[in-house]
Amino acid sequence: MGSGSRQEPADSVVWFHSYLHGGTSSLISTLTTLVTFPLYKTVFRQQLHSTLVREAVSQLRREGPLKLYRGVAPPLLMRSLNGTLLFGLQDTLLQQLSLRDTSAVPRMALPAVAGLGAGVLEAVLFTPFERVQNVLQNSRNDASLPTLRSILHRLASKPPASGYYTAFLPVLVRNALGSSLYFGLKDPMCETLRACGCSPVASSFITGVLNSMVISLPLYPLSVLVANMQAQVDGGGGVRSSWKRLWAARQRRLVLLYRGGSLVIFRSCITWGITTAIYDQLKKRSRSSG
């Protein structure tokens, strides 16, 4: 009992540092979210309307600079909170799994399993943020829902499945798989790069970049589906019917479904490269000072 009571505060400090470092790294990387938001909004229009880049840019120009950053608040808030909880929850779950008898799961797979659990909780907590963001970014909602308050009131008046938690299932699958892949690949990839002579900062940054590419490419269609389901306040239907409509609208061509994907991957590479590098450096300094 005595040794257990001494270990518990130490574990609590480690977990607190994971939440703190995750939040700090994500807060700093939100600067890239702010700078690249016009790029993200261009991609969103491509996801929603399957337009070319020049057509999406023309739409944004016609709407004017005042509406360019409409919808930026939810991703900024979500990004800051997301890093805090994602890294903190994954580390908390990893510590709990490491303390238990998990002989059925290889030890090297525990980070991926913990990432899966963190991704599930992330989807539960942040789907409402993404829902509000997508409604805000859809210019067709500007007339009927001109303010954030009006959107929140409309969504709150609807059942969760058609309100704040529209498209929850694809969000859950995307976030759970993405987090599992990120944390499962992160350390092995980083160690391999360091063995090849990369500096710690460079290896962390490249790991974040490569991870984002590996995750974004196969999961991008889910993001397109989520954007189309969540952009409309009313209607939309279930996942299967929404997917059928989306696939038909893209003329059953994969290349049209991936329209705008290169911009998403570029933005994701920048954000996750910076986030991973900052998080790893903060974690390293915390361990050395402890």
Automatic annotation (TrEMBL):
The keyword Oxidoreductase does not apply. The chain crosses the membrane at residues 20-40, 256-279. It holds the Pfam family Mito_carr. Solcar repeats lie at residues 17-96, 106-192. GO terms for molecular function: NAD transmembrane transporter activity. It comes from the Eukaryota. Keywords: Membrane, Mitochondrion, Mitochondrion inner membrane, Repeat, Transmembrane, Transmembrane helix, Transport. It is a multi-pass membrane protein. The keyword Transmembrane applies. GO terms for cellular component: mitochondrial inner membrane. It is found in: Mitochondrion inner membrane. InterPro entries: MCP_dom_sf (IPR023395), MCP_transmembrane (IPR018108), Mito_NAD+_Carrier (IPR052465). Belongs to the mitochondrial carrier (TC 2.A.29) family. This is Solute carrier family 25 member 53. It comes from Carassius auratus (Goldfish).
